[in-house]
Design goal:
75% helix, 185 residues, mainly alpha, single chain, 11 helices
Length: 185
């Protein structure tokens, strides 16, 4: 889980190699999931539904839209309660504080204040988070206005998620089996 959490905060191969093998594998899996998602036919088609001024940021909106869909329908994908998962995430991060990047620590301070990840199941929280991401980007962007286009995107994001997520789950399961066979674990 730790590598997956670090996936958005560790950049490049040199940084990757500063972590233990298990964490590196989690980071690689996170990157693999991002790549599979971004290159899926459904997500590529979904990007074309974004108004031109939002298209550059479509990946960010889709990513948080998928987080929203997952949190909203968590019980369909996990036997673990979402609030318990949220607590488990914080426990893992607390136990491994020494290897966390400063950016992940900053994000978790924000997340703790907002009750993330569990509150991503609320549309307004997801939209608030997008606006927050927009404030942290260097260039001017329309992420604070996603609420204006969300009604037009919501169904497409839902349909894409429902189609893509099982494919990702299957790929992750296959990846884990291959890793287990390769490593003998």
């Amino acid at each position: 889980m730790l590598g997956a959490l670090l996936g958005d905060f560790v950049r490049g191969q040199r940084a990757l190699w500063s972590y233990s093998r298990g964490i590196r594998d989690g980071i690689r899996l996170h990157r693999r999931i991002d790549k599979l998602t971004d290159h899926s036919h459904q997500v590529k088609a979904l990007r074309n539904n974004f108004p031109k001024e939002f298209r550059r940021y479509a990946g960010i909106v889709i990513d948080l839209g998928f987080d929203y869909e997952l949190a909203r329908n968590w019980q369909q994908y996990s036997s673990l309660d979402l609030l318990q998962f949220d607590r488990d995430v914080r426990d893992v991060l607390q136990r491994h504080d020494a290897v966390l990047t400063d950016k992940l620590k900053e994000f978790m301070t924000y997340a703790d204040g907002r009750g993330l990840v569990a509150t991503y199941r609320h549309e307004e929280e997801m939209l608030f988070s997008l606006a927050g991401i927009g404030k942290r980007l260097k260039r001017a962007n329309p992420l604070h206005r996603v609420g204006e286009i969300w009604p037009d995107l919501k169904q497409g994001i839902h349909e894409s998620f429902v189609s893509v997520f099982p494919e990702i789950q299957s790929d992750v399961e296959d990846w884990r089996k291959r890793r287990s066979t390769t490593t003998g674990s």
